[in-house]
Design brief:
single chain; 145 residues; alpha/beta; 5-stranded mixed sheet; 5 helices
C-alpha cells in the first residue's frame, strides 16, 4: 500500500485526484504501477487501477492477471472493478472506502456478483485513514481555493 500511496502523491502533484495503484505478481513483486492520469491524458479511463493493470499486462505479455493482487488507495469504481474481474485479478486490496462510487462493497459489489465467472478476494480498508487523508486534503484545498 505504501507504493500505491506514493503513486497517489504523484497524481496529486500532477493536479489529478490522488489515487494510486500497484499490481503484484504471485511472488509479491510489483509488476505494474499506476496513478490517476485523467487530467494530463484527457482520458476518462485514466484511473490508477486501469493504468496499473495495463502496465502489469504489458510486463507479463498477456491480459490475464490470474494470481495477481491489485492494491489501490481508494475502493475501485464500477469501471475498475469490472476491469479487475475481466483481467482475472486474484485479489483486490484497497484503502479508503468510496461510499459515493465504490463498487467493491460500498455502493455496489461488482466483484462478488455471483453471475460473473470470476470473483476476486477482497481485503478492505488497509491503511484507510492515510489513504483517505490524501483525498480529503486534495478536495478541501480545491473547495477553498
Amino acid at each position: 500500500m505504501r507504493v500505491a500511496l506514493e503513486q497517489a502523491r504523484l497524481a496529486r502533484e500532477a493536479g489529478d485526484v490522488p489515487v494510486g495503484a500497484v499490481v503484484l505478481d504471485e511472488a509479491g513483486t510489483v509488476i505494474g504501477t499506476g496513478r490517476n492520469d485523467r487530467e494530463r491524458t484527457a482520458d476518462p479511463t485514466g484511473h490508477a487501477e486501469i493504468v496499473a493493470m495495463r502496465a502489469a499486462a504489458a510486463a507479463r505479455g498477456e491480459w490475464r492477471l490470474s494470481g495477481c493482487t491489485l492494491v489501490v488507495t481508494l475502493e475501485p469504481c464500477t469501471m475498475c472493478a469490472g476491469a479487475a474481474v475481466q483481467a482475472r485479478i486474484g485479489r483486490i486490496v484497497y484503502g479508503a472506502v468510496d461510499p459515493k462510487g465504490g463498487a467493491v462493497g460500498s455502493l455496489w459489489d461488482v466483484v462478488r456478483d455471483r453471475r460473473l465467472n470470476h470473483r476476486p478476494e477482497v481485503i478492505a480498508e488497509v491503511m484507510a485513514a492515510e489513504c483517505a487523508a490524501l483525498l480529503i486534503e486534495f478536495f478541501t484545498t480545491r473547495r477553498v481555493g
